[in-house]
Amino acid sequence: MSPRSARLARLSRSVTFSACHRLHSKSLSDEENLKLFGKCNNPNGHGHNYKVIVTVRGEIDPVSGMVMNLTDLKEYMQEAIMEPLDHKNLDKDVPYFSEVVSTTENVAVFIWDNLQKLLPQGILYKVEVHETEQNVVVYKGEQTIVK
């Protein structure tokens, strides 16, 4: 049997969590917030059933046949996503969002940062957050260049 060259694969797993939030920026006046965020600026907030798909990538291990053990990925996602976010008021219960507007973009960044602390280095490929069936954010850890 001849040795095979390493094969790369992507592995994805999804979870769903429920949370409420209010889109509101402390940098804007109440009038500016209402104009920018509309009904999503309701002082009482509103909720979503978020679906999150986490994708990792790496070499397929020749012994296990896996990029990563799904049981491990499930546990990391539980710790990084479900525990801090599920059935929470994002703005009041999650310290990160006390200073950051709880948009879906920022939820994706929060999840990415949490997963980066847990997963083996370099394996996280993307975080996809579905706020609704129509609204989806994909984050791959990119940052803009500070000028």
From TrEMBL:
Cofactor: Zn(2+)
Binding site for Zn(2+): 21, 46, 48
GO process terms (BP): tetrahydrobiopterin biosynthetic process
Keywords, in A-Z order: Lyase, Metal-binding, Tetrahydrobiopterin biosynthesis, Zinc
Assigned EC number: 4.2.3.12
PROSITE patterns for the chain: PTPS_1, PTPS_2
GO annotation, cellular component aspect: mitochondrion
GO molecular function, one term: 6-pyruvoyltetrahydropterin synthase activity
Keyword Metal-binding: yes
InterPro entries noted in UniProt: 6-PTP_synth/QueD, 6-PTP_synth/QueD_sf, PTPS_Cys_AS, PTPS_His_AS
Superkingdom per UniProt: Eukaryota
Pathway membership, UniProt: Cofactor biosynthesis; tetrahydrobiopterin biosynthesis; tetrahydrobiopterin from 7,8-dihydroneopterin triphosphate: step 1/3
One Pfam family in the UniProt entry: PTPS
UniProt-annotated catalytic positions: 40 (proton acceptor), 87 (charge relay system), 131 (charge relay system)
Cofactor note text: Binds 1 zinc ion per subunit.
Function noted in UniProt: Involved in the biosynthesis of tetrahydrobiopterin, an essential cofactor of aromatic amino acid hydroxylases. Catalyzes the transformation of 7,8-dihydroneopterin triphosphate into 6-pyruvoyl tetrahydropterin.
Family of this protein: Belongs to the PTPS family.
Descriptive protein name: 6-pyruvoyl tetrahydrobiopterin synthase
Organism of provenance: Rhagologus leucostigma
